[in-house]
């Protein structure tokens, strides 16, 4: 399994000889509702669009997961798997192969990778977006992704999971509390899923943020603090901080396949 961190929530996952582009923001700036004054993300340098993508995987319909300028740059004939909210975005952009997954539903990519939607981040009072479990069918190796740190208790049925990509620190607003939930939630999912490797997402990479909202956002915790939490709880988990844009191989022990 190979991973390339493309900043913010964006990843290229190479699993089962398939190339999965996850929640890509690769070009232009990032805003919500074109409100630059409130929040704007900018890249220090533009990302090259990865080639030979087999699947675009979208966990949410918000711009930091389904980024319209990036999606406009990609081939509209690439297969897309998306949450219902994200599926609306790519439908409007003219994508031709869209599979919408609700919680508990699965999609098989080229007879090589199973992708299962799990309950993820709440957006507003009624909408819950997707997390994903990706399983390499030939080996049983599994990766779990949830970008805001909201983990469903139903994930216990998937344990053990080899790789977890999720926030390891909190991003909090005064009076509101954490809007990105790492720390405690990351520790709890580590206990539940017993991964070999964990990687941080959502709060890193070669990006800069500005706007009114950023004046109040506070990061609480650190990756080193999280490593210490794992040690104190006797969890033998490797925590990897990926370098932005660099492809690397995960050295994973294969688990016995269920019969």
From TrEMBL:
Domain of life assignment: Bacteria
Entries under Pfam families matching the protein: Lactamase_B_3 (PF13483)
Gene3D superfamilies (UniProt xref): Ribonuclease Z/Hydroxyacylglutathione hydrolase-like
Protein name as it appears in the record: Zn-dependent hydrolase
Organism name: Chlorogloeopsis fritschii PCC 6912
């Amino acid at each position: 399994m190979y991973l390339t961190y493309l900043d913010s929530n964006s990843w290229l996952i190479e699993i089962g000889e398939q190339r999965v582009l996850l929640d890509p923001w690769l070009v232009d700036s990032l805003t919500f509702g074109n409100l630059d004054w409130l929040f704007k993300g900018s890249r220090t340098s533009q990302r090259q669009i990865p080639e030979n993508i087999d699947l675009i995987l979208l966990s949410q319909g918000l711009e930091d997961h389904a980024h319209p300028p990036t999606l406009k740059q990609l081939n509209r004939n690439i297969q897309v798997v998306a949450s219902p909210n994200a599926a609306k975005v790519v439908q409007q952009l003219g994508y031709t192969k869209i599979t919408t997954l609700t919680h508990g539903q699965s999609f098989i990519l080229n007879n090589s990778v199973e992708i299962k939607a799990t309950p993820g981040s709440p957006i507003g009072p009624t909408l819950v977006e997707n997390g994903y479990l990706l399983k390499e069918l030939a080996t049983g190796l599994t990766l779990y992704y949830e970008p805001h740190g909201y983990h469903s208790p139903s994930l216990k049925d998937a344990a053990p999971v080899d790789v977890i990509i999720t926030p390891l620190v909190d991003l909090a607003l005064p009076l509101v509390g954490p809007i990105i939930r790492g720390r405690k939630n990351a520790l709890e999912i580590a206990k539940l899923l017993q991964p070999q490797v964990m990687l941080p997402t959502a709060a890193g990479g070669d990006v800069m943020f500005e706007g009114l909202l950023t004046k109040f956002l506070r990061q609480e915790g650190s990756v080193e603090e999280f490593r210490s939490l794992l040690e104190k709880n006797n969890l033998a988990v490797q925590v990897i901080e990926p370098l932005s844009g660099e492809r690397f191989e995960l050295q994973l022990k294969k688990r016995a396949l269920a019969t």
